[in-house]
Write a structure and sequence with these properties.
The chain has 234 residues and is an alpha/beta fold. 50% of the residues lie in helices and 13% in strands. β1, α1 and β2 form a beta-alpha-beta unit. α1 packs across α12 and α5 crosses α12. The radius of gyration is 17 Å and the shape is globular.
């Protein structure tokens, strides 16, 4: 199986996904890993800015073009290691016959499997993801309720994503942990890191290893990719 990675959204998140793919595969030698073709196209326009109407540059044409390229190269599955970009999932999937593994659907399914009697899922994500209801669509599909940050917390979260992680600056972990606590206070049974930049924070601070209340969507995507490509998860 050849996995196609429609990346560059952003570049650091794509590199992190590939690192997860290697580390999470149960492999004794190089040949046990998944062959992957990575299109790390950093020139794809900003997803959040377009979704919120702050930019006229749509990422969709480049996403379609890259998906078709990966299909022509013989990929059996495609992944998009960006939660916000899944706003365009249906339109991109319609352009190719190759299945695109949906990070939103896989993450909600994983939460349902891992958390007994789950009712509410808290979501930390970009303003574009939250405003578009991308996660809400799948959360409600499984009969659950979405919990999101209030306006003040959402602004703090966007600064963490864009002003800190994407900018390569230190993350204010006091503020970040407060966001998680506030979602718990609002009744969340679990909190999803629904932005790949937040997954990078998880990587730096081992959040999911020490707190089962947190689910990293990027880890879920790597797990699903490994299983669908016929390999075992470590």
């Amino acid at each position: 199986m050849l996995l196609g990675v429609l990346g560059g959204l952003g570049p650091l998140a794509t590199v992190y996904f590939m690192d997860l793919l290697v580390k999470m595969t149960d492999a004794d030698k190089d040949q046990d890993h998944i062959p992957a073709l990575v299109m790390n196209d950093a020139e794809i326009p900003d997803r959040t800015a377009f979704i919120l109407g702050k930019s006229d540059e749509s990422p969709l044409p480049k996403m379609k073009e890259n998906a078709k390229l990966l299909e022509r190269c013989g990929c059996d599955y495609i992944v998009i290691p960006c939660n916000t970009a899944h706003y365009f999932y249906d339109e991109v999937q319609s352009q190719v016959k190759v299945p695109i593994i949906n990070i939103l659907d896989e993450t909600v399914k994983y939460a349902c499997k891992e958390v007994p009697n789950i009712k509410k899922i808290g979501v930390l994500a970009t303003e574009g993801t939250l405003e578009s209801g991308s996660y809400k669509k799948y959360i409600e599909k499984y009969g659950l309720e979405e919990v999101v940050p209030d306006k003040e917390d959402a602004d703090i979260l966007m600064d963490i994503i864009y002003g800190q992680v994407k900018a390569g600056k230190p993350v204010n972990m006091v503020a970040f942990n407060r966001l998680i606590t506030n979602l718990a206070r609002k009744g969340s049974d679990v909190v999803v890191l629904g932005c790949t930049e937040l997954s990078i924070i998880n990587s730096d601070y081992n959040l999911t290893e020490t707190n089962r209340f947190i689910i990293d969507s990027m880890e879920v995507l790597a797990r699903a990719s490994i299983e669908k490509c016929g390999k075992r998860v470590r």
